[in-house]
């Protein structure tokens, strides 16, 4: 799900609003579709006609609303792991229109999603936590927060909008492909259920309103948010058409410099049973300590986790067992306010199993607990000695003296372009083998390598002293007939050490287009390569002529053969200043 920094719930691609919330994430027997349409957005306001939002109705259409990104507001990854991704954005309620609202609220938007392969039961929903901070030195009252979701359904006579009171869910049923006269197949294939859910917050209203300009006027938004009404589907009141569903929470009194959080979810399901199961899973996940890890050392295991999303969680309890799946006994303090605990005095070589439970303000445990993790405490082995790198036949050949000690079962090999952590694992070999060949290297790039030793307990040594390797090969000016060997050099690029010659894209076709993106997905430069050579140089400046900052950049190269076959290549490079 794309994340914006001004309260919008849809994507922005080259200045054009783009639908959001794709279901299913990957193509299956059900065709993928984006279900959140423009202009889905967040509202914050009161009952007196004052509302901050992403979009406003203006005389000639729809314009930007009061929300404005802060200096640190651009969406950025907090965690981007193989299990859970968290992206934050920040914006405030003071727009550029010159009209001051009677409140000044900072919004921290945290968006959570889970990797479907690692956590399949969580692949069909997005959780969004909105934390409101009152920036003024006086209390602010009569505050409501709402989400307006313009779902991409056909509006046919078989489509339904309902309210699930028990789950605080606005449920939309899309009967499938629209009638033939509306451009569909007319067969009502692939029906889908989607829902906007209030997972945590003080429910106030559920509204079903037409998707037209009326909804985007602040005086009407204020009424929709603050009037305590629960709309349910009635065919005589809501004939077939395009509707927006609104859930509001409030009213809230936020003390000066204090915060209030509300948690929503966007959920999809193949049928109503699957949708309800996904909603229940989302509700369970917000109270779980997530991404539990167990890091062993000599006689000690350090347990760490990501804090629960819910504001109802006060602290945590850690439980340990000597067998998997049961027999857990609480260890450590009665309550742990943080997100880590070191379990000491353990027997080296024995495996221990752990779970973590969250507790509320009354010290009652929540029903569900974390996934189980285990580890075996042990002493660290010595790292390998005398690591050596040699270029032979276009590949890096590594060798080392094996670690001294018992129970070494394998060696892990790591590589990067800096010689500093973090390192990227590129392979492993079983002990007693003490060599490795890296064939995935490119000319004129300096690679840094290190190795660790791993014991049977899983305990890993410190990194061995790194070595470097580079194939020195002058780049060819000759153009290529494909993009299979495109590389960037130098990588990383540091103008203080690499000079001002710029960043070179090598092994291009005679004509190609290079698009360069920053880590937030914004295009910073488009290069048109038309000089009939295989090299294009970028001066590390954007279209405005401004020098770009340090960071990781992504490039996409496209070209066409004489037969109009499209060629593609992509990769990453770093700029260090």
Can you describe what's shown?
With 577 residues, the protein is mainly β. It folds into four domains: 274 residues, Beta-galactosidase, Chain A, domain 5; 85 residues, Immunoglobulin-like, CATH 2.60.40; 85 residues, Immunoglobulins (Immunoglobulin-like, Sandwich); 89 residues, Immunoglobulin-like. 5% of the residues lie in helices and 46% in strands. It is built from three helices and 42 strands. The strands form eleven sheets. Strands 9, 10, 11, 12, 13, 15, 16, 17 and 20 form a nine-stranded antiparallel β-sheet that branches. It has a five-stranded antiparallel β-sheet with strand order 6-5-14-19-18. Strands 23, 24, 26, 27 and 28 form a five-stranded antiparallel β-sheet that branches. The protein starts with 10 loop residues before the first strand and ends with a strand.
Helix content: under 10%
Q: SS-based structural class?
A: mainly beta
Counted by DSSP, the helix tally is 3
Query: What would the CATH topology of the largest domain be?
Result: Beta-galactosidase, Chain A, domain 5
**How many domains would you count in the coordinates?**
4
The whole-number mean of residue pLDDT values reads 86
Task: State Rg.
Answer: 28 Å
In whole angstroms, the N-to-C terminal distance is 32 Å
Compute the number of strand runs: 42
Strand proportion: over 45%
- The top level CATH class name of the largest domain: Mainly Beta
Mind telling me which CATH architecture of the largest domain this is?
Answer: Distorted Sandwich
Shape annotation: globular
Largest sheet: 9 strands, antiparallel
Uncertain segments: 178-188
């Amino acid at each position: 799900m794309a994340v914006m920094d001004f309260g919008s719930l849809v994507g922005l691609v080259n200045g054009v609003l783009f639908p959001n919330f794709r279901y299913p994430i990957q193509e299956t027997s059900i065709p993928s579709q984006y279900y959140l349409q423009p202009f889905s957005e967040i509202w914050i306001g009161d009952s007196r006609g004052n509302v901050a939002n992403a979009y406003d109705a203006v005389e000639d259409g729809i314009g930007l609303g009061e929300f404005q990104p802060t200096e640190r507001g651009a969406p950025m990854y907090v965690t981007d792991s193989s299990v859970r991704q968290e992206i934050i954005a920040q914006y405030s309620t003071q727009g550029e229109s010159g009209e001051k609202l009677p409140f000044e609220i900072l919004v921290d938007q945290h968006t959570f999603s889970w990797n479907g392969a690692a956590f399949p039961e969580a692949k069909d929903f997005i959780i969004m936590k909105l934390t409101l901070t009152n920036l003024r030195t006086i209390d602010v009252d009569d505050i409501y927060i709402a989400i307006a979701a313009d779902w991409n359904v056909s509006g046919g006579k078989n489509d339904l909008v309902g309210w699930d009171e028990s789950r605080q869910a606005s449920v939309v049923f899309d009967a499938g492909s629209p009638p033939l006269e509306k451009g569909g197949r007319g067969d009502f294939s692939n029906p889908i259920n989607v829902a906007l859910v209030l997972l945590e917050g003080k429910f106030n209203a559920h509204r079903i309103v037409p998707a037209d300009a009326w909804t985007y006027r602040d005086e009407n938004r204020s009424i929709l948010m603050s009037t305590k009404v629960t709309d349910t589907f009635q065919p005589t009141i809501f004939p077939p058409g395009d509707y927006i569903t609104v859930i509001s929470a409030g009213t809230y009194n936020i003390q000066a410099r204090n915060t209030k959080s509300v948690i929503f979810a966007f959920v999809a399901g193949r049928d109503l049973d699957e949708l309800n199961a996904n909603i229940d899973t989302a509700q369970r996940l917000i109270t779980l300590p997530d991404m539990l890890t167990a890091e062993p050392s000599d006689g000690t295991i350090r347990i760490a986790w990501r804090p629960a999303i819910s504001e109802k969680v006060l602290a945590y309890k850690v439980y340990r067992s000597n067998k998997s799946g049961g027999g857990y006994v609480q260890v450590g303090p009665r309550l742990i306010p943080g997100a880590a605990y070191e379990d000491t005095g353990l027997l080296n070589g024995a495996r221990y199993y752990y779970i973590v439970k969250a507790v509320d303000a009354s010290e009652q445990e929540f029903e569900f607990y974390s996934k189980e993790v285990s580890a075996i405490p042990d002493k660290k082995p010595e790292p390998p000695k005398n690591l050596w790198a040699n270029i032979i036949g276009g590949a890096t050949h590594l060798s080392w003296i094996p670690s001294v000690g018992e129970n070494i079962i394998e060696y892990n090999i790591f590589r990067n372009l800096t010689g500093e952590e973090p390192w990227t694992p590129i392979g492993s070999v079983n002990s007693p083998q003490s060599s490795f060949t890296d064939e995935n290297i490119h000319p004129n790039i300096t690679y840094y390598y290190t190795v660790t030793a791993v014991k049977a307990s899983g305990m890993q040594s410190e990194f061995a002293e790194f070595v470097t390797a580079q194939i020195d090969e002058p780049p060819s000016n000759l153009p290529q007939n494909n993009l299979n060997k495109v590389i960037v050099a130098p990588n990383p690029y540091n103008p203080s050490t690499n000079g001002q010659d710029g960043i070179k894209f090598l092994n291009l076709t005679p004509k190609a287009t290079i698009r360069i993106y920053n880590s937030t997905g914004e295009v910073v430069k488009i290069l048109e390569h038309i000089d009939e050579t295989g090299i294009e140089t970028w001066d590390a400046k954007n279209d405005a002529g401004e020098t770009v900052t340090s960071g990781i950049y992504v490039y996409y190269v496209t070209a066409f053969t004489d037969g109009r076959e499209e060629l593609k290549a992509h990769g990453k490079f770093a700029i260090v200043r």
